[in-house]
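Q: Predict the assembly, please.
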Amino acid sequence: MDFATLLQVLDSTVRLATPLLLACLAGLFSERSGVIDIGLEGKMLAAAFASAAIAAVTGSVWLGLLAGIVAATFMSGIHGLASITFRGNQLISGVAINFLASGLTVLIAQDWFGQGGRTPSLIGGGRFEPITLPFAEALSGVPVLGPIYAELISGHSALVYVAFLMVPLTWFVLFRTRFGLRLRAVGEAPEAVDTAGVSVVGLRYAAIVICGVLCGLAGAYLATGLQAGFVREMTAGRGYIALAALIFAKWRPWYALFACLLFGLLQAVALRFQNIDLGGITIPVQVMDALPYILTVVILAGFVGKAIPPRAGGEPYVKER
Amino acid sequence: DPALIYDLGGKFDKSFNEAAFNGAEAWAEETGGSYRDIELQSEAQREQALRRFAEAGFNPVVTTGFSMSAPIASVAADYPDTKFVTIDGFVNPEEHPNVLSILFSEHEGSYLVGMMAAMASESNTVGFVGGMDIPLIRKFACGYAQGAKSVSDDIEVISNMTGTTPAAWNDPVKGSELAKAQISQGADVIFAAAGGTGLGVLQTAADEGILSIGVDSNQNYVHPGQVLTSMLKRVDVAVQDAMTQGADLETGVMVLGLAENGVGYALDENNQDLVSEEMKVAVEEAKAQIVSGEIEVHDYSSDDSCPALNF
Amino acid sequence: MTDTPAIELKGISKAFGPVQANKDISIRVMPGTIHGIIGENGAGKSTLMSILYGFYKADAGEVWINGKKTEIPDSQAAISAGIGMVFQHFKLVQNFTVLENVILGAEDGPMLRPSLARARGVLKQLSEEYELSVDPEQLIENLSVGHQQRVEILKALYREADILILDEPTGVLTPAEADHLFRILDNLRSEGKTIILITHKLREIMEITDTVSVMRRGEMTATVKTAETSPEQLAELMVGRKVLLRVDKVPAQPGAPVLQVENLRHTDSHGVERLKGISLEVRAGEILGVAGVAGNGQSELLEVLGGYADATGTVRVNGSELPLAGGQADGQSRRARGIAHVPEDRQTEGLIMPYTAWENTVFGYHRDPRYQSGPLMNNAMIRAEAQDKMTRYDVRPPNPDLAAKNFSGGNQQKIVLAREIERDPDILLVGQPTRGVDIGAIEFIHQEIVRLRDQGKAILLVSVELDEIFSLSDRIAVMFDGQIMGERLPDETDQTELGLLMAGVTEMPGGDPIQAIDASLEDKEAREAEQHD
Amino acid sequence: MDKMPAWADAVLVPLISILLAAVLSALVILAIGENPIDALELMVQGALMRSAGWGYTLYYTTNFIFTGLCVAIAFHAKMFNIGGEGQAMIGGLGVALVCLFIPFPHWTVALLVATVAAAAFGALWALIPAYLQAKRGSHIVITTIMFNFIAAAVLNYVLVNLLRPAGAMDPATAPFPEATHLPTFQDLFATADNPLFRGSPANVTFFLAILACIAFWFLMWRTKLGYEIRAFGHSESAAKYAGISPVRITVVAMLISGGLAGMMALNTTMGEAERLVMNATEGAGFIGIAVALMGRSHPVGIFLAALLFGFLYQGGAELALWTNIPRELITVIQALVILFTGALDNMVRMPLERIFMATRRRNG
Ligand SMILES: Nc1ncnc2c1ncn2[C@@H]1O[C@H](COP(=O)(O)OP(=O)(O)OP(=O)(O)O)[C@@H](O)[C@H]1O
Ligand SMILES: Nc1ncnc2c1ncn2[C@@H]1O[C@H](COP(=O)(O)OP(=O)(O)OP(=O)(O)O)[C@@H](O)[C@H]1O
Ligand SMILES: [Mg+2]
Ligand SMILES: [Mg+2]
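A: Predicted assembly structure:
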């Protein structure tokens, strides 16, 4: 692989890692608060649709983004209602949300646009345009570093930079603020938080809302940044990969970044190279497609150390049995 | 009344199925008639839809996609008075006299757009993004490569398939990534024969400022001024014809090529600035030669091989 | 001192579904006093205090603090009313540091750093003032229970609580640690703080409290000045009748050794060594009592012997060796070797709560060919046998079709006992046989255990209740930190000596028991923290 | 004492939950500008008023019984098997291999062998997640989801590169030989003058599904294994105390679960398509979750819930045929049913409990 191709693959890695990263951080907030979320996929999908639909109608990507966030947060709200208020099974609620998003997006899209569950293609202000960072042009001539800056670092849409900035921000919120301390505590020992006079329900809903907002960003990026419009099932399992990345990352923000970049890289490689020829043995494309999933299982099997989830994860908080 | 069954890709794929839909609409507009259509939900529904339409007296029952040929073969005998049409599929006419199989010479149309791609290319590198990796799509790719090579002997044709399952028809993200990869390898015209996936290719091409070529329907309007042309596959005409003939439909096997105007390339106000006079002349000439048999475009599916491209 | 009570509860009632946990309870506690609340298990003590702390919501009743009617809808309100509570089951975040636990919910601002810095200072001061030393940077999971309790007290003091509620604080402490705690409470009282102390140990009530209230079956039966009452009177108030807390038994006639344990070692899933070379022996016809503070390896000892934790070392039953790991080391193989096991926790181990009583009477023995007919289980026969056992063990109600969860704790324990004893085992392992069981049932269970001993069985009894250990055991072994610190005969020792052994203190160079205990516990914590990483 | 009688929990709660889901579904239909009453009528007409409609309804029901039982047995062992989909795919592979490569004399023999193959392949696919859960504590929800994706890749590879007949476009195997074709309801019940179940895919595997329900009941409530599985599901610590090996129960329960999912492929592969196609499972593995939840993991409940979903599927197909309501409506209805019966069930249960407690108190 020559340098240019490598840059291309890495560039593509960044693009593909972005929705994973946003969703992964979304899951991180939710699960750190003790609410397991396998509905990331559905929330992203809902956001992707809402952002594309509103951007198509209004011509403004910002309104679209807002709509995406609202849609994902609404889905989050359902999850919260089921798993926090009504102490239902969080896994089942997540499954239901995935189904709901998968059906509703197409149903509404068809009703609104009549294009078979697609939104119209977004043009002009309906999309996030790539941002060229300062001096990208000027520096592109510098050997090695120049192209890296100009092609790999510069030239992504705003949400990519937002996603990457979210990593230190998440770390800071989680480990340097009062809110973060309480959030982590509520995922470990909700009764400790409760007896310390802090509302468990309030904290968990806050986490769920943050989760919704981040999923909203992820979905909006898919539909208005990476692509130019919504198509059915366009999340294509990214929510599950994000979940896997979260476990891989042991529920920590910086690790999440690396996990998502790794999965992004795997996807980028699988996309670009159909059948990889390794000295006589051809690796079929199906293996590349399945690689992120296989890797997740291998990771889960504990070859990379045991991942201990937040202790109260998945359990509704019930004071009175 | 006629009925129309779309393949799993769905009615509004802006491409193959949508062409069928457009044909049906055109028929309805022209004749004032009405028809019924359905997007399939599952495999088991293929037969069900055929039977339900046949039982309800719809005639002919037109279907799109090669996957419908097997169900038609198993249903047709039960409804001898109903005419079935399979577009892109093949059902043995001896065994099932009430079935019309319509096939297209996609390689011929692809040859023409391949020529145009080569002439429009400045980097002497053109790309092809296919949908699902099946002989049908290789037929597109092979015709395209032959056309391109006929213009420039040393032209490089980069070809990628999106996948090996029907999901490959509906994966614009992957289409987009493949297009980016081809662009980085120097391609400056990319032909997308990939259903919904192709929209991602067209989008990326437009974003990156290179040319793309649409497929099946006229997709020039998707990004005006940035889609060089579209390889037309006149599914719409086929559907409209079948519906017009109605219950008296002539069955058998029909192959539509350049001669029958079953395939072609699209020229309209959206791409008139892109297609030079010289290009038009060359393509029309080649078209005439293909029709007359002077140029023979190799059909990949005839022997599963391609002289111009390695898969 | 004024005569406005610091706390006044008026007519508090609380029901959990069909269980009436508190019925119209009223109580007055004067400032600067220690008020004791005693009552049997399940009498409603914890419920009442949780209501005062805003953890539960009362169905009816009022709370008055310092003469003002105060609504306490949640713990936040309780905290601002100056109430602090140390729960029976600690409410700590295990993987947070002491410091983080202390500031949780009482941070100074949205940023953590300043809060932590301030708390570090305050904590240092509090530790010195009240002899509550803990390392503020240590993780909770590395602390002993005694130290965890200190953290809970520090939490309350950090929030400047004037009223401190302690729910059974001594249940997890050695007698010496308990004495130390009482010194602290005495300190706090002299500073004018009001303390409510829940316990069911009459000795403690007599030792430290000023006034005492007695609860029975959700009701407040009496409130008296401690100076004007006696343990006998309190016991009677507690149970509602005169009780005799001694077990009648003849001296043991020990026979051949039945259970021989040598150098038993066990490491848990976190990689912490829980049993560090245990050796002991139980003979036919004797009860060996294992004393110790909870969490020093007694549970693991039972688990290993009961066949559900792997270990190394040797265990012989009637002279032949038991496999300690692998396929043959499981509960059912142990039962086949004549080892019966009444587990420490009947609700999470001994019984399947949603199963009916009859299904539970074969739990663990369900593979016995006796209970099969062909490929299916012979449910009719199991049910008939269950009916019979329940009648003989006086399980109330004697209805085998009722789910286990619908029996009270004492009756659940009887079902477990019936199942294990009826199989005529050679060895009976018993963990906490009377935890959460009322005095009537305790008498019955103790008698059954002694009866089994007199039939020549070997009995290994694990209990955190020193009283129970003293009254049942023929020999007493004391466990600390996964080791046996020593063996004593009940007639030749006392609570003080056992208490020190329970804290790992075998000799006291300085002569101060508390310092020795602290040193010993800190040693243990440091070792565990090391193993953890 | 319980807060509510058992029958109320088993019948009333799911019934009210379904009702709520139905009301919301009706609102959704209204919102897209269609008439819910008409839609329901069309669904009932198409699914229940014709024998061929029943033929389709029962065909789907068969799938859902298998996947419902698959999820249910895992539930009993307190595991959440989301991998029914992948297990069914691989089960289909087993069916295809025996049907294609063993020359069977008669369909009965073929069915027998294919059943074993389907169950074995499905079980095999559940084995790795089960083992990882038991031995390494890898969360089975995540691993089974991953195994769904991996199964799709495996099937894809096998169909595209190994089993696809030369020249075929579909990623599908060649049609199975005549001798493996299972009798459909039409073959079984139609007569010359009464063409029952014409053209519909319901076939003898429906009876196999019913047998599976009965066997499931015996297994869970009459055998040692069922006793142990349920005990383990209620309390892992108690199971350990009793000498019930968590590893063994986890693995065995998942093997049975995977086997049941695999057997679903008999219906789609051998019964209907008579060849193995890429997308034969069509989400039935996920529907199984809803079916098991609604059926309270009891075979009778599962049968009824499977019937309901079979009706929804077939009715939905009819809707798509005769109206402009997109097929995704059915997905939305499914989602609502899962949401209300599975995750929001306490929303129904809590007020009901209060009502029951109040009446009990009033009556003494
Ligand atoms: N959260 C709860 N849900 C339902 N019932 C409860 C709950 N907490 C307590 N109970 C019941 O209320 C009654 C009183 O319990 P409580 O914990 O107050 O007793 P206690 O006096 O503190 O007993 P112990 O000495 O065992 O701590 C018991 O019957 C118990 O089963
Ligand atoms: N969590 C619970 N769920 C349902 N019923 C309960 C629960 N806790 C207690 N009960 C019921 O309340 C009644 C009283 O229970 P409790 O545990 O207080 O008994 P108790 O009076 O302490 O008896 P014992 O001395 O035998 O333990 C029992 O009959 C039991 O059926
Ligand atoms: Mg208590
Ligand atoms: Mg009790």
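Residues 351-421 of chain C form one domain. Residues C 41-42, 408-409, 436 surround magnesium ion (ligand 4) (CB under 6 Å).
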